[in-house]
Amino acid sequence: MFQKFLWAVMLGIAVVLPLRAELTYQGEFDPDMTLSEYFAKAYPNPQKSIIYVFYNDINMSCENCPETIELIEQVYQQNYQNQYELFVIDYGDDDEYNFIQTFDLDKPLEVVLVRVDDGAVFGYKKLENLNYQISDPLSFSDNLVYQINSFLPS
Fold first, then answer.
1. Spelled out in words, what is the top-level CATH class assigned to the domain 43-151?
2. Distances, alpha carbon 6 to alpha carbons 9, 11, 12, 77, 106, in Å
3. Which sign, positive or negative, has the C-alpha torsion 72, 74, 75, 76?
């Protein structure tokens, strides 16, 4: 009887101890950091401006989002591949990086241009409702190129 009790206690300890283990974060992320602190640590001297494509389509209600993202990626590949960084991010999974608050994201699809010059960030510009502008892909591409060229350094 005592042996069964001892085994039950040891099994309970073996199950409970991993549950109490603290989370450890890999890479440069620390949950107490702000977004700018994270990027400063993870990417000490960003040399290129950044084009973020943020989407959040939990209910699959975003009209034309996949097509819009594809067009944005085509414009990037044709015009800016070696000049800027491109990140496509599902901001619905934004528990770590706090993009929602930093860029005031509230639409299913938003593009954020982040100006970087000589390793310093000089602000950002949001492009909204691009997913409603893809009926004419050529005009869409021309508009996106114009928006990028007018804000980001060449």
1. alpha beta
2. 5, 9, 10, 64, 55
3. positive
